[in-house]
């Protein structure tokens, strides 16, 4: 940190505050920023005139305060300036934007560009201080989220059963492994997780995604639907002619809030959302890529894996082949499939149309309908692998410790 402090001092002067710098365009906002700095025991030099233009002029890549307040009131190209500033600040620092437009559309646009908050002039010390302190709370939520496990399931081809796998894994974790589990279905128009479990969709899921600044436990509870004691499901069926605004930041905030109450969070991510959810993939502990055993599956697993490598994904990638069995012939052999991937397939989910049909019609999980089936066994192994679950060792009673399971006849003293 000493090197960072030295670099920042060169840019902003000896009284630089590594935690915060404000760049505003009017005297009132400058006074408010200085008032907040004083209340938090930061130097007055942490508040400077010049707006976002001055921030762009002074901040260099790798040399940014943790939090930057930037005024866009006099910017000719605010969207471009925000994008350039965020790139300079880097992924570990945070931007709060100040502007004059009091419109929810403007707020959403700023969030979509990468800002963490948008404040409307005239600024007040109370609003600015609350915004800065909210960032600290958000960081704590992310830290809490990292203590749990985040698993993202992606079907690399349509109709390969990724949602079926995600739904049954969540059910197994909640009902057999006895873990607090949340299942988030990001197919907001055609998702089937709630349908598969025969539960109603929640009423506030869309609103939670579109208004991340309002997200709290009470708000989240209105969107969650419970299936039993330990399984929470977030799903919705939005009108197909309406586009839902779902940014990386809103989903990040949602997962952070959910992770405080559930230590297993599974996200069913439709493949068409892959280009917009790089941050989700990068932060996942496990990404499960589900494919059929086809040439197209080889191609798409390799493409997605290559893209995730460029994201510097922190977790592991599990490759799962589904819909394989006597009732559904594979296009290529398992050996050829693995040769095309240059890697082994971790799990093969067998085709079991009879069981899955019963499950679909009854709105029940595989574990409820056919607990001893081959498909249930593989899903159980996959779930335990992801959750790091170990089945408790059953203690043997005194009766069972005797060979053959029979009690030895008590012998009296020899005559």
Would you write up a description of this structure?
This protein is α/β, with parallel strands linked by helices. The protein folds into 2 domains: 2-132, Rossmann fold (3-Layer(aba) Sandwich); 148-387, Rossmann fold. Helix content is 43%, strand content 16%. The chain is built from 18 helices and 13 strands. It has helices at residues 2-12, 27-39, 51-58, 78-89, 104-113, 125-147, 162-175, 193-196, 205-210, 217-221, 248-258, 278-283, 295-310, 334-341, 353-362, 366-369, 374-387, 398-401, and strands spanning 20-24, 47-49, 67-71, 94-99, 117-120, 149-155, 181-185, 225-227, 231-234, 264-268, 286-291, 316-324, 347-350. The strands form 2 sheets. It has an 8-stranded mixed beta sheet with strand order 8-9-7-10-6-11-12-13, sandwiched between helices. The protein has a 5-stranded parallel beta sheet with strand order 2-1-3-4-5, sandwiched between helices. Helix 7 packs across helix 17. The chain starts with a helix and ends in a 14-residue tail after the last helix.
